[in-house]
């Protein structure tokens, strides 16, 4: 698993490439939290277009980051997730607390 | 896979016991790096039946959940072996994930959506719910100190005609 970051204003775009499971979750957590600390991040967009696998460990990663930015009054969104990942995310009730968009641009427009 | 018939007086009899067409057993250390190993092996074995990619991904996700549970809840900080036993039938699979770890005190509670014994680890409590959703049936056998066996069943609708 690899993680790429990009900043658009106060929004941090987190692209996760590869497989997000319990094994890679701890690394993902640290890496994302470090990035939140060092940049002027308020909102987070999770880009799942290159995420080939995710199980319920990924839900913990998303929820944990959501809680972290919420303390800064920031928002979280998910973009480009396939139907399987969407199903897992939906199951955990995540779509009740954060929106899902079809593209990064759409997410950023709606989060400003 | 067993087929049951309800007889008179509510008795249940096995009327047919299907034989697996293939079987596989795998044993590996309770290291988190083996989670992807286990789900890839399960998917490769099941692919003999020629299910759809979607169905294969269902199996991978469910196996990942069961093996993760064995590693983080069954063995916690200890090291032990996780066993995976797969049986293939004409159009279905039965996968058992077995650990000899600390076992589950309250199985019903453990299976409840969003319940987790480890919220501090950012566990979502969705493991069993995901297994149940992606497989047809999930049975859990466990007792404190006796380890845990999770058996998951799935029929591949694309294969069965």
Fill in the keyword field for this structure.
heterodimer; A: alpha/beta; Transcription Regulator spoIIAA; 4 helices; 29% strand; B: Heat Shock Protein 90; 5-stranded antiparallel beta sheet; globular
Which consecutive residue ranges of chain A, at least 5 long each, have pLDDT under 50?
none
Number of domains of chain A: 1
Reading off the top of the CATH hierarchy, the class of chain A is best stated as: Alpha Beta
Strand content of chain A: 25-35%
Describe the protein's architecture and organization:
The complex is a heterodimer of chains A (112) and B (161). Chain A has 112 residues and is of the alpha/beta class. Helices cover 44% and strands 29% of the residues of chain A. Chain A has a single domain (2-111), classed as Transcription Regulator spoIIAA (2-Layer Sandwich), CATH 3.30.750.24. Chain A contains four helices and six strands; from the N terminus they run E-E-H-E-E-H-E-H-E-H. The mean pLDDT of chain A is 94. In chain B, helix 2 packs antiparallel against helix 4. Chain B is globular, with a radius of gyration of 16 Å. Chain B starts with a strand and ends in a 6-residue tail after the last strand. The chains are: A alpha/beta (112), B alpha+beta (161). Chain A binds chain B through residues 19, 21-23, 25, 29, 53, 55-57, 59-61, 63-64, 84, 87-88, 91-93, and chain B through 32-33, 35-36, 54, 57, 60-61, 64-65, 68, 71-72, 113-114, 121-127, 129-130, 133.
Short description:
Chain A is of the alpha/beta class. Chain A has helices at residues 22-38, 56-70, 83-91, 104-111; strands spanning 2-8, 11-20, 43-47, 51-54, 76-79, 100-101. Chain A has one domain (2-111): Transcription Regulator spoIIAA, CATH 3.30.750.24.
């Amino acid at each position: 698993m690899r993680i790429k970051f990009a900043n658009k204003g106060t929004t941090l775009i987190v692209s996760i490439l590869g497989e997000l499971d319990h094994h890679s979750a701890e690394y993902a957590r640290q890496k994302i939290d470090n990035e939140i600390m060092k940049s002027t991040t308020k909102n987070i967009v999770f880009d799942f277009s290159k995420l080939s696998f995710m199980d319920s460990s990924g839900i913990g990663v998303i929820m944990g980051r959501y809680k972290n930015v919420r303390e800064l009054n920031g928002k979280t969104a998910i973009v480009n997730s396939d139907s399987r990942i969407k199903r897992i995310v939906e199951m955990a009730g995540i779509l009740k607390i954060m929106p899902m968009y079809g593209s990064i641009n759409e997410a950023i427009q709606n989060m400003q | 896979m067993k087929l049951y018939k309800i007889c008179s007086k509510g008795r249940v009899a096995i009327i047919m016991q299907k034989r697996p067409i293939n079987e596989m057993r795998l044993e590996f250390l309770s290291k988190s790096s083996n989670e992807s190993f286990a789900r890839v092996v399960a998917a490769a074995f099941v692919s003999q039946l020629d299910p759809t990619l979607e169905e294969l991904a269902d199996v991978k996700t469910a196996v990942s959940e069961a093996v993760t549970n064995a590693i983080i809840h069954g063995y916690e900080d200890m090291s032990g072996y996780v066993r995976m036993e797969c049986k293939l039938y004409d159009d279905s699979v039965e996968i058992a994930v077995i650990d000899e770890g600390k076992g589950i005190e309250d199985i019903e509670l453990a299976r409840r959506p969003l319940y987790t014994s480890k919220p501090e680890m950012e566990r979502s409590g969705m493991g069993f719910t995901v297994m149940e959703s992606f497989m047809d049936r999930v049975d859990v056998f466990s007792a404190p100190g006796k380890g845990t066996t999770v058996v998951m069943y799935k029929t591949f609708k694309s294969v069965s005609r």
